[in-house]
User: Fold this.
Amino acid sequence: MRRSLFEPEHDAFRDMVRGFMERHVAGRHADWEKAGIVDRDVWIEAGKQGLLGMDVPEEYGGGGVADFRYHVVLDEEVTKAGASGLGFGLHNDIVAPYLLGLGTDEQKARWLPPFCAGETITAIAMSEPGAGSDLQAIRTHARRDGGDWVLSGAKTFITNGINADLVLVVAKTDPEADGARGLSLLAVERGMAGFERGRNLDKIGLKAQDTAELFFDEVRIPATNLVGGENRGFVHLVENLPQERLSIAVAAVAACEKVLELTLDYVKGRQAFGRPVGSFQHNRFVLAEIATQTTVARTYVDECIRQHLRGQLTVSDAAMAKWWTTDLQNKVADACLQLHGGYGYMSEYGVSKAWLDGRVQAIYGGTNEIMKEIVGRGLGL
Ligand SMILES: Cc1cc2nc3c(=O)[nH]c(=O)nc-3n(C[C@H](O)[C@H](O)[C@H](O)COP(=O)(O)OP(=O)(O)OC[C@H]3O[C@@H](n4cnc5c(N)ncnc54)[C@H](O)[C@@H]3O)c2cc1C
Assistant:
């Protein structure tokens, strides 16, 4: 189905992103997968090409265009290139809104120029060894000491965790407050005394993505690194999570499209019983279902993007998009792997990587079970 979301300028941007992927990523990603991390110079190159901070005002070195469709194009092309190690989506779609929406002028002037140049790589650290879905269980805490905050605790599963120069850490700043209240966002910077990285975690997919443990031992953070309101962290998270979930859904649909494309190509060429395996009715039906479901998912997600551009995407709509498309992504990857037969189980075939990389989509950004809780609550249940 023809998409009506984009204007010619987005198509031109897409061509540019594809060129970037071919020149700076395609030939290197396999090495990054072995290393468990991408080289920092790809971030610098992305900064030069205007792929970081597209919506950051020009005075801070950004693209100056607050149009989420540029983020969508980048997320789709990163996914279609299989460049699952690039944490650009986390930087642009997830961290930037906190800095742009909540940062003081002084913070923006300090952090956004290197953010856009790819010199400062960012991360956000909510999850802890004992607290993922349940933010009420966050133990990382900070107390005031003169003009500073003093932060202690541990985070885990943090995307860009090794490369990050600036980490937005969710910490309890009011120990008396109940539940998820009393949380604040503190920006921890590379080199602060007491800030240590743990393991770069060994995962089943996203092999080039540095997903790490972070430790904070009495890290002294100037009060000027508090992002947003003191004890307002939970509200800030709730406001920003719909965009994070929409980005995940955008990537999920792009992954379905890419895997379908790979598989169509394969089943037209692979012969069994004297005919292409795609010509057996069962396989044709499987692929017809995948094409239909992917088109339906695309249509819903494009409408979510339109709502988001108007500032009207609800928490519930974003949660629906996240769980439904990522569930679909996993089903599609599994069915397509099956259609490849034994070759689907071989690492050299793109479908096996898509199967492994996609699995986490149902887990991070809020698990799909938590998404259904949100949708259920929206129904008054
Ligand atoms: C590759 C990767 C990258 C990540 N990147 C980041 C990052 O950059 N920053 C960050 O902060 N976190 C990140 N995470 C963490 C991720 O957000 C959490 O793993 C996720 O929120 C789930 O938390 P958990 O792992 O503690 O699972 P748990 O909360 O322990 O959940 C375990 C199971 O119980 C289910 N469950 C829990 N509560 C309920 C409930 N109320 N009803 C029904 N079922 C429930 C869950 O759905 C899940 O199936 C990342 C994780 C991975 C794997």
